[in-house]
Amino acid sequence: MPYSMINWKYYGIIAVFIASLFAPLIFPEYVLNLIAAALLLGLFSAAVDLSIGYGGLLNLGSAMYFGLGAYCLALTQQAGWNFLSGLAIGVFCAFILSALIGFIGLKLQRSMIQYALLGLVISLSLEQLAIGSYSFAGGSNGITNISVPDLLSFIGIKFKSDYFYCVVILTGILLFCLSFITRSHFGKLLLLVRDEPGKAASLGYDVDRVKISVTMITAIVSAIAGAFYVPLINIAYPGMFSVTPNMLVLVWIAVGGVGTLIGPFVLAAALHIFEFELGSQFVNWYMFVLGIIFVGAVMLHARGIRTLIRRFSGG
Amino acid sequence: MDAEFDSSFFIGAMLDCLNGFSSVFILAFGLYIVYGLFKVINMAHGEMVMLGAYVASVSQESGYPFIVAVLCAGLSGGIIAFAMDWLCIRRLPERSSMSSLLATWGFGLIIAQGVRLYFGSAGRFVNPPVSGRIDIFGVPLPTYQAILFAVSLILLLQSWWLLGRTQLGLRIRASIDNPSLAELNGINTQRLFVLSFVVGGAFSGMAGALLAPISAIDPTVGTANSVTSFLVVITGGVGQIFSVLFGSVVVGGLRSLINSFWGITTATLGMLAIVAIILVFRRRSALLND
Amino acid sequence: MKKPHIVWILALIALTVACSGKDDQQAANTEAKADRSNPPVEKVVVGLLAPKTGVMGVHGESMEMGAKVAETVLNKRGGINGKTVEVVVVDTQSDPAVTAQRARELIERKHVNLLMGTGLSSSTLAAIPIATNANVPFIYSMDGEAKTCQPGKPNEVSKLVWGAGFTERMIVRPFLSFLVEKILPKHAKSKVYFLGGDYVFPRATNQYARSVAEAMGLKVVGEEYADVSTTDYTPVIRRIMKSRADLLLVTNPGSAAVTFMRQAQQLGLSDKMIVSGFATFAQEAVSGMGNASQGVYYANRYSDLIDSPVNAAFVAEFRNLYPNQPLLPGPTVAAGGYGALMVAAEAFQKAGSTDPAAFYKAMRGLEMDLPQGHVIVDPDNNIFQQPMYLLRVDKQKYIVLSDLGLQKHPGLEGCSVR
User: Fold this and answer.
1) What is the model's pLDDT at position C3?
2) Kind of pairing between the strands at C297-300 and C367-370
3) What is the percentage of chain B residues whose pLDDT exceeds 90?
4) In a 10 Å sphere around its CB, with 0-12 CB exposed, 13-18 middle and 19+ buried, how is residue C160 labelled?
5) With contacts defined as CB-CB under 8 Å, which chain A residues touch C15?
6) Which stretches of chain A score pLDDT less than 70?
7) Which residues contact B101 (CB under 8 A, 6 or more apart)?
8) Residue C100 and residue A233: Cβ atoms within 8 Å?
9) Model pTM greater than 0.90?
10) Where on the phi/psi map is residue C398: left (φ > 0), alpha (ψ -120 to 50), or beta?
11) How many CA atoms lie within 13 A of A162 on its CB side?
12) What's the pLDDT score for residue C1?
């Protein structure tokens, strides 16, 4: 990628973030909620893109980390614990699970498609488990009545839309961290492991450990996004682990631009807002229109996806 | 508990296992044709099955016999597949890729929503051509289930024969194994792909009609169809007809067997666990192209 | 190559922000104008959270139809307190997250005076805290376990949430009593098998039904739950037949019930035992069953064949508004959509305003004759007391066999709001 293009995109994103800090002055609360949710979904997409696009590790069950973060937070909130401990538990669980799956999936066998589907199977199993536990996790009803926490209470501050600001700043920081990773030594190592694993191995790098590491990073950021997402919709429910969110994140990545991080972030966020708006205007037809837009988008960006194919056929 | 072996239960379980296998086999067959051979993931497969069921329902309501309804459903599937290819897939630089996955997903959305907008969300039904049961050693077997099992056997044998023993099959296998070499030998791989895609679509549609008498028919069933078919094809692995056979045995037959002995939810979780284990322990060398 | 890409996306965002900004601007303008001289005709705005797509799609469509019929009828007689009634419908996609966001949108953007609808319990539970915090009354249209207790206070009734549908406590006992007295064979202790979908309401229902059944002298010979992805029920059907049950109670609504009944028909289950259920066999769900529904005994809050002038007028109005609708009005249309809104309208009328506190006072104990029968809003638990009917499906028509009488939910038992 030419250097000039990178700068332009980043300045654009920074501008959008700064602009969103002024949002509470203009928009009513439901729009703020919508924007915050959109940012978190975008963050989730970018995190998954790190593994899939940048790391070359296709995973059809990425939504499980998002859902895990969501459920851990919801469970702790229900028990009355504070937000940060819920967040920490979610991060910890995602860390453990990704390490487990990474180890089993990558060490025991080396086929990429198998690893991808293993993720999906585990995600669906988590969905079943969530449905089955009514007393603990609300079963199919999910865990509800999770209100927006007073995050800054430990400093003693509380002001209107404080949660929104927290989400905006958090998303900005984590997104910056993710892109920092891609520009760091580790990022270059990821690319090497993705494109030429043999060479990486011969240079002395433990290829599997690199892959597991990137999976864990994705898992942790996804879990954080999931945890912050729950208070916005007041509920954590088993559907978060189902086929649909798993597929959607892949759609966002593929159409947004595999491996770019920013592309999926922007697309997921924009699409969330756009779909909501479209749904308001055309209550009956919007899903139909969405399907047409997707086919059109794929046709338009098919050339940009060619690079992805080359990687997968090599991997 | 009496020590006597409960033969009727055992026979029932076996019959159900065969039924589970054949339903899933028929369902996944259309997807397999395109994915197993050309590695194109048709995310609209489930919706095409659903549409086939709708077409069959409308045909039957109009008074046509069941066999005509099945053929109409097949025609609808074939037409949709052709349209998908013509509008979109042949214009993609690389067929077997994320692009085709996404494009077909978009088409699936269009089909499902189109059906919902035209027919509404309420369900429809299709009556089987025969009702009643056959008696197998005292255990009832629905006649229609027996027919479905026969259909799946015919499909199996026919595909094996087609791919293994005919010129066409040879050409198809050549274009999969080495497309450029096949082209040099005068095989039009593009035309073969379109043919396979359309035939796959037709089978998807026919599956919808064949399975309609024992399923629900409404705009939402597409996703479940796709997921089941996907599991079959992936469990079976890419390759010759054996893969979809193996996949159907695990996802359909084995699930039914576990259900008979240990209950429904155990069957679902058990099936998922077995699929996961197969995926984890499958040796890479056994797969030619992944 | 990447440039057009990003530009397209940014254009999309710009367009979106412009769209949402524009609506708020218009609303602000209208409010500003209203503050000045002649205020425009005020409206009573009702927000309908309808699951039009997704697994509850049929019910979403039904709710909308019922609410629209009510809107027409109310506006024909001059609206509520002289104001026009406007029903705003949004699609919740049968998804709790979307329900939550749409509920917020309806409250903040459309300034609704009343929320109604939602589908599965998870969606209802997602909307309740939002309505409660915004001080907007919410009537949930569908049957399910009680959800009218206050969040965090399970023994206190909410002042903003009402349940229009029946609960398991209202329907199980009268239903089983009727079956035991009139339908099941008298000579021996009848055996009953429970089959449900694997989620909260069927489990709660069966848990309660089990204790009621055993108290009535029935023998429970099986209890099973099928997860939503099940499409092969033949092993289950064989198990049920093997148990030699006399009665099968199915609480597995939607597509799952259709699949089950179609496969059960193949194996001839109906020849061997009485098949029964409630929400499972509602009008909305049964169109897919075809003749597999023949002979099913079923209890619910409504049938289009209820013989009363109120119902006849409603069905006529429905046919008038929806002449091409092949589906006859079912419980969700008549009770969940139409009935709920008519009750709310009556309460607003009685209160003389749209103030939530006045609305609550007016709703307490409100009585009304609706297409489903005589309905009373229970003052203690906000759940509509309503008649339950014992119906039999014959050639896909719902024949009313018996009016089981007005049923009331006891206190706040089984409330799932945490």
Assistant:
1) 39
2) unpaired
3) 50
4) buried
5) 274
6) 1-10, 107-111, 113-114, 152-159, 301-315
7) A250, A254, B41, B43
8) yes
9) no
10) beta
11) 12
12) 37
Residue A93: how many other CB atoms lie within 10 Å: 17
Any bridge partners for residue C373, and if so which? C370
Q: What are B102-156's pLDDT values in tens digits? A: 788 889 999 999 999 999 888 899 999 998 899 888 899 999 999 999 999 999 9
The number of distinct structural domains making up chain B is 1
Token reading at C109: 């953007």
Q: Is residue B290 part of a domain?
A: no
Residue B108, chain A, CB below 8 Å: the answer is yes
Host domain of residue B64: 12-283
Closest CA to A243 of A121, A98, A113: A121
On whether ipTM exceeds 0.85, the answer is: yes
Residue range C227-256: mean pLDDT, rounded? 90
Angle at B113 between CA B206 and CA A276, to 5 degrees: 150
Q: Is residue B6 part of a domain?
A: no
Question: A141 to chain C: nearest residue by CA?
Answer: C122
Q: Looking at the domain assignment, is residue B94 inside a domain?
A: yes
What's the average model confidence in pLDDT over C187-212?
88
Q: In sequence order, what are the residues at sequence separation of 6 or more whose Cβ sits closer than 8 angstroms to the Cβ of residue C16? A: A270, A273, A274, A277
pLDDT at C31: 43
* DSSP classification of residue C80: B
pLDDT confidence of residue A142: 87
Per-residue pLDDT averaged across C50-73, rounded? 92
Q: Confirm if B93 and A299 have CB atoms less than 8 A apart.
A: no
Selecting from B88, B98, B108 the residue whose C-beta is nearest the C-beta of A299 gives: B88
In this predicted model, what pLDDT tens digit does every residue of A159-182 receive, in sequence order?
Answer: 677 888 889 999 999 999 998 998
Best mutation target among C227, C233, C262 (most B Cβ atoms within 10 Å) is C262
The CATH number of residue B255's host domain is 1.10.3470
Q: How confident is the model at residue B273 (pLDDT cuts 50, 70, 90)?
A: confident
* Helices and strands of chain A, counted as H and E runs: 15, 2
Is residue B1 in a domain? no
Q: Does residue C159 register a pLDDT over 60? A: yes
| Residue ranges of domains in chain C, CATH in brackets | 41-166+313-386 (3.40.50.2300), 168-300 (3.40.50.2300)
Tell the burial category of C118 from Cβ atoms under 10 Å away from its Cβ (0-12, 13-18, 19+): buried
Give me Rg for the CA atoms of chain B.
Answer: 20
Q: Which two tokens stand for residue B180?
A: 């450029």
Mean pLDDT of the C362-390 span: 95
C297 phi, psi to nearest 5 deg:
-95, 135
Give CA separation, A202 vs A190, A194, A198, A311, in Å. 15, 14, 6, 20
Q: Phi, psi (5° rounding) for residue C215?
A: -65, -30
Q: Which of C229, C254, C263 is facing B268, going by the closest CB pair?
A: C229
